[in-house]
Structure prediction request, 721 residues.
Amino acid sequence: MSDHYERVKIELQQMKAVESEAAVDEEQLSPASVSSVPADASFAARRDLSRSSINGRSRSKSRSKADGHERQVNGKLMSDLTPLKPDYSQEKGQSRASNEQNIKGTLKLLKGKTPANGHVESCQRQTEGKCEHHGKEDGSKVAKKRRAVTVDTSKAKTSLEALKMSIRQLKWKEFPIGRRAACDIYWHGVSFHDNENIVSGQVNKFPGMIEMLRKINLSRAVRTMQELFPEEYNFYPRSWILPEEYQLFSTQIRLLKDNDSTLKPTFIVKPDSGSQGDGIYLIRDPADLRAISGSQIKQAVVQEYIQKPLLIDKLKFDIRLYVLVRSLEPLEIYIAKEGLSRFCTEPYQEPSQKNLSHVFMHLTNYSLNVHSGNFVHSDSCSTGSKRTFSSVLYRIASKGVDIKKVWSDIIALVIKTVIALVPELKVYYQADIPPGKPGPTCFQILGFDILLMKNLKPVLLEVNANPSMRIEHEQEVSPGVYEYVPSPVDEEVKVGVIRDTLRLMDPAQRKQHATLNTGDGSPEDAIAVETGSDEKESLMDSLPTLCLKQVFPKYTKQFNNLRVAERIAAIFIRFLGVKGTMRLGPTGFRTFIRNCKLSNSSFSMASVDILYIDITRRWAGMLPDSREAGMCLQAFIEAFFYLAARRSKAVPLREQVLLLLEVCEGALEGQSHSHSEKPRPHRSQPTQASAPNTFSSPALTRRHHLRQQPMKLSAKANTEN
Ligand code: ADP
Prediction:
């Protein structure tokens, strides 16, 4: 590793040395295709320009499933949908007293007074269907006064068109084939590693995000949080990981049915790394799994199927929301004010043996439904098989629904989900970008797929690490032949999200933000301070209001107490010892126990070793693809829960864990600077032979016991609606 970092350091110095030549080099490297749009060009004209660039390049392409991206098309025009504050009383002109007034107030917000997407835009008559666009200049005068921000777009893949448009709108500088000197921003289409050896700037992917958002890992991360905060994390359907939990799944469902013979649950089986509905099927009994997959059950998640979704026009639909994780440390989360709603194409009926295989009835994926004869491409944002989320909110608001509550529930779901992912992401991050070493910082746009239940409770279906940012949509031009054609609505939503992400990641803005960020500062404030007051005015005049809304740290107070696993991860990372690893060796684990003073006469170091071996071996069996030996974070968390339960027996798990955290953090305080206390690099792993054959640790018993507790499916809860 050290060689690598020496090399990287030298490269960095070399890059700095060539920086002065860069201006010349840049022009030489930068292809002529990076056109600048006249400052007074109207949006419509610019859009035409960008269209013609799409058209000129390749107006239609044959369909392909590019780079693990979802295919996604259509979508509608944005309106200004302001995510709502949990404290409704803070909303100007809003009254909590009457639901009717609430809706009126919210509808006012929805009427789109604020330009949200690079253009003054409005969906003034949502119910009438057509969206109106008005062009607006969005060039930044401030951008002219400082060096243009440089963006390497060479690996942008399917997001390239939307990215190019965003860069043009911001008057930044694009490097379509990369650049010899470092860029400010690297836009990757797939993963952090699309470009190797980036030593500075910012990359639009976090290391490990793809891995973390596979269905099994997401389920595991949420499950850990469910164990600590069962009520807070009940937005994720009950899930079992296959094949390892098949027996548990069978037993629990059998018990459930034995207890209540009227219960007719349905389950959805999702392959671990599947997307776009590929390989998904519904079952009504665990035995069906064996019948379908035979003796070899593949890696998958089997999940309680939400039987009573909210319907519109008798159709099931889901919501795609774009979420920006701007930074992990400090944690910063933004939500796009507009999203997409994707509709099924066959009227919904509750699952029965007869309709179980009707994909157009049960699965909302665009990629599937576009093949149904009933799929409706519409120019309107409130009809058709893909609509804006705001148009859906309008519809349900007109029926007397408190849509502020729906929004604040969704915001809570998003923040809690990101909080569940952060501990593991930090482990990946320090492995790829160890602190103190040269490396980029990261940010990432995620695609949250959310289902609204009939009782309006949002349910998390999945999170996409690479949500489609295509601004073209797929059309069947003749039977079986598909082409991509420009999609104005995708352009509206996605260009806004990318452009405003770039604005938030503007290095100058970030620098100001970092010095200003006292915990609840807003990016708008940062922009205001970055420029002089005149400049501020012209900036605010020329740029639209951000379509991304900060929700964290804004709502720190409401959610910070949930960040318990992150504190455990901080201890784990501290004892990893060797930079660049993600697994804790036995020496590191022992050092953790010793430094935190957790062993005593009733818990000897021999027991510590046995605990380590037992948990690590079991997790190794559950992570067959892993090449690295040692204890992963999830296994460490399990060990931590066990140790917590040993120390304080009579209180709930969360209290046990908090008490142990205090003990550990207290003991470690002050040790940070003492070199002698730091764990030494460990190389040796315990041999399999040294491990006892059976060790039923109370931790395992406790977890197992938890899983055996009576299960409540929301399918049952649904019947109350
Ligand atoms: P993929 O990544 O393959 O799209 P998803 O988890 O998004 O997998 O599931 C595909 C579709 O199946 C969703 O868009 C939704 O319509 C439906 N779906 C997924 N999970 C559930 C669930 N637990 N209950 C009801 N419908 C679900």
